[in-house]
Amino acid sequence: MLRSQQPLQTTARVDHLLIAEMVAEGARVLDVGCGDGALLQLLTDTKGVDGRGIEIERERVNACVARGLSVIQGDADQDLDDYPDDAFDYAILSLTIQATLRPKAVLENLLRIGRRAIVSFPNFGHWQVRTRLLLTGRMPQTENLPEPWYESPNAHLCTIRDFAELCAKVNASVERSAAFNSSGRQLSTRVPLTVQNIFGEKAVFLLKRRSAY
Amino acid sequence: MNTVNPQEFDLGAEPRVSEAQRPSSQTMHFDEPLVLDCGQTLAPFSQAYQTYGELNADKSNAILVCHALTGDQHVANPHPVTGKPGWWETMVGPGKPIDTNRFFVICPNIIGGCMGSTGPASVNPKTGKPYGLSFPVITIGDMVDAQVRLIDRLGIDQLFSVIGGSMGGMQVLEWAARHTERVFTAVPIATAAWHSSQNIAFHEVGRQAVMADPDWCGGRYLELGRVPRRGLAVARMAAHITYLSEEALHRKFGRNLQDRTARSFSFSADFQVESYLRHQGISFVDRFDANSYLYITRAMDYFDLAAEHGDVLANAFKGTKTRFCVVSFTSDWLYPTRESKEIVQALNAVAANVSFVEIESDKGHDAFLLDEPELFATVRGFINSAAAKRGIAPAHVG
User: Fold this and answer.
1) pLDDT given for residue B109 in this prediction
2) Are B154 and B147 in contact (CB under 8 A)?
3) What's the 3-state SS for chain B?
4) Which residues, listed in sequence order, are joined to residue A93 by a DSSP beta bridge?
5) The complex's ipTM?
6) What are phi and psi of B80, to 5 degrees?
7) Blockwise average pLDDT, block size 10, chain B, 398 residues
8) Catalytic annotation present for B166
């Protein structure tokens, strides 16, 4: 399952703005799990990208196409295999990897399809998550992860450290990473990973394939 | 240019026959032979077509609408035989998703058809008689090759869009595969890249019904002044079921009785659904040629875009520059979503620019012709954003 978690928003999300900053002008972009198309629209408007999207929910796909975005109905777990190598400059997975069935395979596909991959995800290492689990002994529910475990679309939650390890495992080099705290402010990039993993509620990674696959 | 003398062989006053031979549409004649996939040539030949809107100065705003099996060129004007509204008036017209205030819309009758383009009901100039079964077996590719001649003659280098549903969608795919540089956008709706075994099977039932009618006369009924009414009506009835869904039939008719309160214990049309199908069959015969039905269903059966490209569908679209918008409907079991997805997968494999929308509808395959707001919104949004990229001026009002 692949589901964009964000409701329709009129103002750009902070992680979207950071992604837009990472993407080069006029690039070819695939947004996997593009939701209502907010990020694609932002990238089209501010960076003039040639953008494509994949989204699992029919109504969202139709809304995207009706507003002129090139979006197909599909699933990150199944449909990425269809794309050729290096088809895009950037393959983006925004707050979606935790909802995939095979995050490692999806990440490998992103790195194959895109010359660079941009992945954002909710950080399960955030101090609120840690303290709730510690104090209540239950799966944490936070503002960022609001559903109870049995209703959550998230199948594979991870921490910033976990994700950094996965990147090393799939031979991706981290060109840039950033974390945002719960008020949406970006943490200083000078802060070590261990601290980001405590205070970051969401993280964004810009990745590049290290070698030929 | 005109080598056919339509006055030579007058086959009666029936509107169906006269439209085939003296269409009320514009008609373009072609003397240079059309080389067909079967190896034969067709010459001379004609194509009847309708246009709507105006071609702009740089000829960039032309949209080709391709019709389905039993459709024709009368997409947005009253039908000359039935008097009914055009078959896609909800989609094509001033202010409609395909806005004729902005675009120049061309809809030709396919070759093999019976509304004025050369087909089995046309008079063969060599014999002075209707072609009947001496008409060569044509393919979707042949239909498209003929349309290319028409577009050439109109002086249009690149079509802004080629749009069609069902068999019209097959033509769209063939256009995009054979002439990507001439197709800026392609919108194949409720269609597939090959005809399934089940679809071939239904077509065969229809053809056998036509050929079993004694009035078919081995295909020479026009010469003999007869019409295989019952056979063609049965073919239409069977086909019509495939255009609907069980849910739509149930919603529309249920087990309701027609004009009676109790079963008649006979074989008259007790049920509303029977009465409806009989009406569909009978009214179809008044406007369609039985041999055309055989030829066109055959062309659809033969359609297999992958087979034309080394059994790899993606090869059909290699290097494509065309922007695609593929549309399917949830309850369409004739051309199910799965088959649209195969097209999308092939397009993704060559990194084509593709959108794909599955629209929820319980109306079956026919949904593409009906009032489906989500379809209109999709086509409108896709067309308008592509038109902006192509630099086509917005619609002028008034």
Assistant:
1) 98
2) no
3) CCCCCCCCCCCCCCHHHHHHHCCCCEEEEECCCEECCCCCEECCEEEEEEEECCCCCCCCCEEEEECCCCCCCCCCCCCCCCCCCCCCCCCEECCCCEECCCCEEEEECCCCCCCCCCCCCCEECCCCEECHHHCCCCCHHHHHHHHHHHHHHCCCCCEEEEEEECHHHHHHHHHHHHCHHHEEEEEEECCCCECCHHHHHHHHHHHHHHHHCHHHHHHCCCCCCCCCHHHHHHHHHHHHHHHCCHHHHHHHCCCCECCCCCCCCCCCCCEHHHHHHHHHHHHHHCCCCHHHHHHHHHHHHHCECCHHHCCCHHHHHCCCCCEEEEEEECCCCCCCHHHHHHHHHHHHHCCCEEEEEEECCCCHHHHHHCCCHHHHHHHHHHHHHHHHHHCCCCCCCC
4) A32, A119
5) 0.84
6) -65, -25
7) 40 71 94 97 97 97 98 97 96 98 98 97 95 98 98 98 98 98 98 97 98 98 95 97 95 93 92 95 95 98 96 96 97 97 95 94 96 95 93 78
8) yes
Whether B365 sits among the annotated catalytic residues: the reply is: yes
- Assigned token pair, B212: 């079993």
DSSP helix/strand/coil, A38: helix
Is the whole model's pTM more than 0.80, yes or no? yes
The pair of three-digit structure tokens given for residue A194, joined into one six-digit string: 């261990």
Main-chain phi, psi angles of B284, to 5 degrees: -65, -40
B381 touching A (Cβ < 8 Å)? yes
Contact A68 B357 (CB under 8 A): no
Residue B121 pLDDT? 96
Vertex B106, ends B96 and B15: CA angle to 5°?
Answer: 100
Give A-chain residues touching B350 at CB under 8 angstroms: 84
* Dist CA B370 CA B130 (whole Å): 35
Please give the pLDDT value at position A147.
Answer: 92
Residue A90 has pLDDT above 80, yes or no: yes
Q: What CA–CA distance (Å, rounded) separates B75 from A11?
A: 43
Retrieve residue B326's tokens.
């593929």
Query: What per-residue confidence (pLDDT) applies to A67?
Result: 86
User: How far from chain centre, in Å, is Cα B86?
Assistant: 13
A·B CB contacts under 8 A: 66
pLDDT at A15 (0 to 100): 87
Total length of chain A: 213
Residues B290 and B14 sit within 8 Å (Cβ to Cβ): no
Q: How far is CA B126 from CA A63, B46, B129, B131, in A?
A: 55, 15, 8, 10
In whole angstroms, give the CA distance from residue A27 to residue B278: 57
pLDDT tens across A153-210, in order?
A: 999 999 999 999 999 999 999 999 999 998 889 999 888 999 999 999 999 999 999 8
Residues in chain B: 398
B117 annotated active-site: no
- Which of B166, B138, B135, B146 is CA-nearest to residue B106? B146
Dihedral sign from CA coordinates of B246, B249, B254, B256: negative
Q: Closest to B377 (Cβ–Cβ): which among A66, A69, A72?
A: A66
Q: Are the Cβ atoms of B353 and A50 closer than 8 angstroms?
A: yes
